[in-house]
Write a structure and sequence with these properties.
Its EC number is 5.2.1.8. With about 350 residues, the chain is α+β, with helices and mostly antiparallel strands. The protein is built from 5 helices and 18 strands. It folds into 2 domains: about 130 residues, Chitinase A, domain 3, CATH 3.10.50.40; about 150 residues, Peptide Methionine Sulfoxide Reductase, Chain A.
């Protein structure tokens, strides 16, 4: 087990994806109540039972939090706090551990040989495991180091004071799914697109239900690593998303993208509607016409199945990647993407 010697960059404790600072246009009546599937931006303050503030968007340098209700990017209790609010309304709720970060799990406290840990570790240092999971150092002994993989708010009741700022109704939101090799880099590319509401990585087109990363990597399940994008069709078109996808993979490389080899790294467009299928087919025809004599192996299929990947894969590069160096996910950013961090 390898660790990153640096501390994990401070992250929001409510969501895995920080806001990009862009307030979306309000497309609904100010009196419409927020519901599952709507995209919202909120200001919030989170406190513990002793009154101490553990996180807030209401301070200089912070921006409102944006997320899709029920999309899995915030804890269940936070979804509940926002649901039913109209723009401009506020709510204050106390959330039990079961609807927050769960109870402390003793199995998430592990010991590793000190010789395999970075030098100079101290109690309360934050480290990142080689699989992307963050951990906190709790004991530094003569021969072993104890790491706690539980969320730092596990076992605690949390109180949230939230205010709904904007709301985009679910009706204008659509999904698109693409396979372009290792899903970390393509996800960051889509995160940067104006009109993309949220991104999620997962496994698609396979024959095994709820596969693990290890199973998918074995090549035995038939899944492809994919990015699933939720986007506002009034701000970005499906063709524009196809352009982003096209720029993130080699369409002539079969079951291989860069140094990643295997059927799970095959390139594909997996459509959610007849309209998407028609547009994607036309797009591929245009690309083939522009690349005479070259075989394009990017597959085009209706989406058959989709399973969300493990939490540590989600927004992996924007959260720090392998080397705890977060890459910019802000809208319009065109910085080069470091595929592994």
């Amino acid at each position: 087990m390898q660790l990153s010697a640096g501390r994990v960059i401070a992250r929001r404790l409510v969501a895995v994806r920080p806001s990009n600072g862009r307030l979306v246009a309000v497309r609904v009546s100010a009196q419409q109540a927020a519901k599952a599937g709507d995209f919202v931006s909120v200001h919030y303050t989170g406190t513990l039972d002793d009154g101490s503030v553990f996180d807030t968007s209401r301070k200089e340098g912070r921006t409102p939090l944006e997320f899709q209700i029920g999309g899995g990017l915030v804890i269940k209790g936070f979804d509940t706090a926002v649901t039913g609010l109209a723009v401009g309304q506020s709510n204050k709720v106390r959330v039990a551990p079961e609807d927050a970060y769960g109870q402390v799990n003793a199995e998430y406290i592990i010991n590793i040989p000190k010789a395999k840990a970075p030098e100079g570790l101290k109690v309360n240092d934050r480290v990142m495991l080689s699989n992307g999971l963050p951990a906190r150092v709790t004991v530094v002994g003569e021969s072993e180091v104890t790491l706690d993989l539980n969320h730092e708010l596990a076992g605690k009741h949390l109180t949230f004071d939230v205010e709904l700022l904007t709301l985009t109704a679910q009706d204008s939101l659509q999904k698109a799914t693409f396979g372009a090799g290792c899903f970390w880099g393509p996800e960051l590319a889509f995160q940067r697109v104006l009109g993309v509401i949220s991104t999620e990585v997962g496994y698609s087109q396979g024959k095994v239900e709820e596969p693990s990363y290890e199973q998918v990597c074995s090549g035995s399940t038939g899944h492809a690593e994919v990015v699933q994008v939720t986007y506002d069709s009034q701000q970005v078109t499906y063709r524009e998303l196809l352009d982003v996808f096209w720029g993130k993979h080699d369409p002539t490389s079969l079951n291989k993208q860069g140094a990643d080899v295997g059927t799970q790294y095959r390139a594909g467009i997996y459509t959610h509607s007849d309209e998407q299928a028609e547009q994607a087919a036309k797009y591929l025809e245009e690309k083939r016409a522009g690349m005479p004599g070259v075989k394009i192996v990017t597959e085009l299929e209706p989406i058959k199945s989709y399973y969300k990947a493990e939490p540590y894969h989600q927004q992996y590069l924007s959260r720090g990647g392998r080397f705890s160096q977060p890459q910019d996910a802000s809208k319009g950013c065109n910085d080069p993407i470091r595929c592994y961090g």
